[in-house]
């Protein structure tokens, strides 16, 4: 039996027009949805479950009741059960930093002992891009970040992965289980929840846990980071029109792309 | 009284609308122009389990209620009525097999619909028998242990793409009663003597396949009879409430899709130095479109609820929902074109297509006039 833990997050997306309220954006201008990267991580996990004999997929999320809808959609796509961590302490924290998330997920990992943990590379809203690797470090798991192809050999306990590095370079690595992989978009094509899956998901468990249940206290989620300001950056756009025939235009385009760093080596 | 949807119904609506936005909307204009059946979209719809969800769980479906089907149909039609109909109609006629079919018929014909391996159709109308269904003249005669079928069926949805059809045939012409003597018989498209000719040049829902079926001494085994010989019409009538509610849901979807597009355009388009949405004339149009759509949805949901929990008393309500929602669909699509001005008159925008598509909801599954006849008949306490 293999257990896969997928961390999922419901992220806020800001509407085109919005108003800042100090360091917050009012709820009126936010729409909530599953973090894009997590959709790929869920798909990866569900595909492993479909390919394997006895694979359990568990999702873990930190968030208020509102995000149950999003978690249930993950259950509808084939995740077996969900864990949602929330309580008044968490609700009162302004900014949940990577350390806090690491503490929480680490406690879940101690309880669940998964063989494989899949996270998104980053969350679309606060874009720390560090949680997966930080969790691996704390839990003493192997890790590989920015994975865009995975071939799991469960019997041998090895994940053959391809990692996307800067500047278009890719790396093939073997990672021993238990391991954390942070999943990059494009690794697969996330499915739609089927109507049957949506029906079955209504009966699947989403266990709510508090910090207390996880053996943590307030100290675990105290942040060393404070949000000091929030503002809209001035945005500038630059247009360059290429004139001439196709050859000339293509040559100018290529040189601009090279200048901007597209297409390394 | 509780007007809320369940968590499952909300999730169904959201995921179908996500599917429709990604897989249907971007290709809708192209299928409309080419009058082409959207095979690629159908494959994806099958993967998501959108086809024939009313088929019971034992046969691979989900056993959706009328209300759940209405929610699904509304979302599909709000994206595109043509492709929406292709998806929603993949299991047309299956309800007869579900209710009256033998175990063997159910096992043979139902699972392939859900899996996207087969598409079916319901063939009632004929060149000379439209509103007057009792004048059906396609004849099925018993010859040994086979039925021999001769006749033409007109306007059959899925006619050239369908693998099998539940066909209403006259089997006992000698009975006196207008409504008995007809039977439902399954005819597969690979039987000798079966042919289907696509009808092109439709005003709207052009992605949906419509055809004339011709049966020339088609032989099928006697086991292809669905339910009881001679009771075909009475069997079909049991589903009018359900199928009319589904067409009402199509109307709600069309109205919703047209109204949403009008709202969006009104906020983008500027004239006289301001957004046209600042003109009260446009605001009132939008207000009416949304109000009518909501009213049609209320009536449709109530009819769906009636079919599911109070089936004995829903006939008048189903006709009201079908008549009203189809009228709202055509009116709202009309206003949506008006809000777009000249841009609404060409196919760069969706509303022109919605305007053409909307009309069918007032014609098939019993015309507006027939629905009003039924409502009046119920009011005046007359039988059929
Ligand atoms: C795109 C499309 C798809 C279709 N799909 C199917 C299908 O899958 N299966 C199927 O069996 N059929 C299908 N139909 C046929 C459809 O159900 C008929 O067109 C419809 O029932 C009307 O019949 P008709 O066209 O013969 O019109 P007619 O019955 O000739 O009606 C003409 C006009 O006379 C009016 N009228 C007729 N009788 C009365 C009356 N008693 N009182 C008042 N007014 C009356 C009608 O309301 C209408 O305005 C489809 C049609 C179309 C266009």
From TrEMBL, chain B:
Domain Acyl-CoA dehydrogenase/oxidase N-terminal intervals: 6-117
Flavoprotein is among the record's keywords: yes
Keywords associated with the record: FAD, Flavoprotein, Oxidoreductase
Annotated Acyl-CoA oxidase/dehydrogenase middle domain residues: 122-218
Chain segments annotated as transmembrane: none
Acyl-CoA dehydrogenase/oxidase C-terminal domain ranges (all copies): 230-380
InterPro entries attached to this UniProt entry: Acyl-CoA_DH_CS, Acyl-CoA_Oxase/DH_mid-dom, Acyl-CoA_Oxase/DH_mid-dom_sf, AcylCo_DH-like_C, AcylCo_DH/oxidase_C, AcylCoA_DH/ox_N, AcylCoA_DH/ox_N_sf, AcylCoA_DH/oxidase_NM_dom_sf
Family annotation (Pfam families): Acyl-CoA_dh_1, Acyl-CoA_dh_M, Acyl-CoA_dh_N
Record has Flavoprotein as a keyword: yes
Signal sequence coordinates: none
Cofactor(s) this protein requires: FAD
UniProt GO MF annotations: acyl-CoA dehydrogenase activity; flavin adenine dinucleotide binding
Family: Belongs to the acyl-CoA dehydrogenase family.
Protein name: Acyl-CoA dehydrogenase family protein
């Amino acid at each position: 039996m293999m257990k896969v833990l997928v961390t999922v997050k419901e992220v806020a997306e800001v509407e085109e027009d919005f108003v800042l309220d100090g360091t917050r954006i009012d709820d009126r201008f936010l729409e909530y949805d599953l973090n894009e990267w997590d959709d790929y991580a869920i798909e990866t996990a569900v595909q492993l479950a479909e390919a394997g004999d006895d694979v359990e997929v568990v999702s873990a999320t930190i968030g208020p009741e509102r995000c149950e809808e999003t978690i249930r959609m993950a259950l509808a796509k084939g995740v077996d059960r969900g864990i949602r961590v929330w309580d008044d302490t968490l609700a009162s924290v302004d900014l949940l930093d990577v350390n806090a998330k690491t503490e929480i997920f680490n406690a879940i990992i101690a309880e669940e002992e998964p063989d494989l943990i899949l996270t998104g590379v980053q969350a679309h809203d606060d874009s720390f891009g560090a949680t997966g690797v930080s969790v691996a470090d704390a839990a003493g798991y192997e890790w590989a970040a920015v994975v865009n192809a995975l071939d799991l050999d469960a019997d041998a306990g090895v994940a053959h992965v391809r990692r996307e590095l800067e500047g278009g370079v890719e790396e093939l690595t073997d990672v021993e289980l238990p391991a954390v992989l942070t999943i990059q978009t494009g690794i697969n094509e996330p499915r739609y929840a089927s109507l049957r899956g949506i029906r079955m998901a209504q009966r699947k468990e989403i266990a709510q846990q508090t910090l207390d249940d996880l053996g943590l206290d307030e100290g675990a989620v105290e942040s060393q980071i404070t949000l000091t300001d929030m503002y809209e950056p001035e945005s500038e756009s630059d247009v360059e029109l290429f004139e001439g025939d196709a050859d000339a235009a293509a040559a100018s385009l290529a040189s601009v792309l090279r200048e901007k760093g597209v297409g390394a080596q | 009284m509780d007007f809320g949807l369940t968590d499952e119904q909300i999730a169904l609506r959201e995921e179908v609308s996500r599917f429709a936005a990604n897989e249907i909307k971007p290709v809708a204009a192209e299928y409309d122009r080419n009058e082409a059946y959207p095979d690629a979209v159908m494959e994806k719809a099958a993967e998501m389990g959108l086809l024939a969800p009313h088929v019971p769980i034992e046969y691979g479906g989900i056993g959706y209620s009328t209300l759940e089907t209405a929610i699904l149909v509304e979302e599909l039609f709000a994206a595109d009525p043509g492709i929406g109909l292709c998806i929603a109609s993949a299991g047309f006629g299956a309800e007869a097999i579900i209710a009256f079919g033998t175990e063997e018929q159910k096992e043979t014909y139902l699972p392939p619909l859900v899996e996207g391996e087969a598409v079916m159709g319901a063939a009632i109308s004929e060149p000379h028998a439209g509103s007057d269904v009792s004048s059906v003249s396609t004849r099925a005669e018993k010859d040994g242990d086979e039925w021999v079928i001769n006749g033409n069926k007109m306007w059959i949805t899925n006619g050239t793409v369908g693998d099998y059809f539940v066909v209403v045939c006259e089997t006992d012409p000698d009975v006196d009663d207008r409504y008995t003597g007809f039977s439902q018989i399954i005819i597969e498209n690979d039987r000798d003597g079966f042919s289907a000719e696509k009808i092109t040049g439709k005003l709207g829902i052009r992605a949906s396949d419509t055809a004339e079926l011709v049966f020339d001494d088609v032989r099928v085994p006697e086991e292809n009879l669905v339910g009881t010989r001679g009771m075909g019409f009475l069997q079909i009538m049991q589903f009018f409430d359900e199928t009319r509610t589904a067409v009402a849901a199509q109307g709600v979807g069309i109205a919703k899709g047209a109204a949403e597009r009008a709202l969006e355009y009104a906020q983008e388009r500027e004239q006289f130095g301001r957004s046209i949405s600042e003109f009260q004339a446009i605001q009132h149009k939008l207000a009416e479109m949304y109000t009518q759509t909501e009213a049609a949805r209320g009536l449709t949901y109530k009819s769906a609820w009636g079919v599911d929990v109070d089936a004995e008393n829903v006939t008048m309500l189903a006709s009201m929902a079908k008549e009203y929602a189809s009228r709202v669909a055509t009116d709202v699509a009309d206003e949506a074109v008006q809000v777009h001005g000249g841009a609404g008159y060409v196919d760069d925008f969706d509303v022109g297509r919605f305007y053409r598509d909307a009309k069918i909801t007032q014609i098939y599954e019993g015309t507006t006039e027939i629905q009003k006849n039924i409502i009046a008949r119920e009011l005046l306490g007359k039988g059929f």
